[in-house]
Amino acid sequence: MIKSLMGDYNFLHISDPMLGITEKQIKIINSLRDEDHGLYFSCDIKANYVKKDLIKKMVESGIIVFSIGIESLNNFALSLTNKGCTAELEIEACKVIKSFKNIFLKSYWIVGLPGENKKSLTYNNDQIYNLLKSKVVDQVCNHIFVPYPGTEFFDNHSYFGIDIKSRDWIHYEGRSYPVVYRLNELTADEIYDAFLKSNESELKYYKEKFPLLLNENSNNESYEDISFSKYKGRLI
Predict the structure, then answer these.
(1) Of 19, 140, 175, 204, whose CB neighbour count within 10 A is largest?
(2) Has residue 44 got a pLDDT over 60?
């Protein structure tokens, strides 16, 4: 049925993503492994569920892109926000996924989590560059933490060291300026500055890795590893 809907497309990301691993999902993965379906998939996965034998099954079923939420490498911030795993576990999960050939790994990061400070944000930004350069991850997606109304971070903000500065809902968005809160050790502007620097850390790697991309007169055909040209994607 999916193939009939895909037409000439062969790559898709299915939502809700595979954040947890259920018995039903394992059954689907095993079924896909036995089918010559010609489709490729992406999914989100939590570090807690990453085991080499499971990732092997997922790769064999056609999953070629994984996304994982690292968020921060500050264990205090991860614990305070109930992440449920440590920075060390996140990095180890990334290494397990990248141990398989031709797999693309996207990592999500959140700037300005409760419990962060200038030192921890600087460390995070340094590690963004290092993880890209050492090929532990292939891509970084940065967002600013947002204490959305209805969450415990908004309703019980003082417990998390959050000072809500604005209730202008148009700015309650993961890349918006001005930042709508401050932390005990970080002003709103310091959080946004760290967000900009996190993007600079990523761009620093790309400029080193793909210098010809900055040259309008260059032939970029040699950069096949940054393209999904053989996969045509759809979101279903």
Answers:
(1) 140
(2) yes
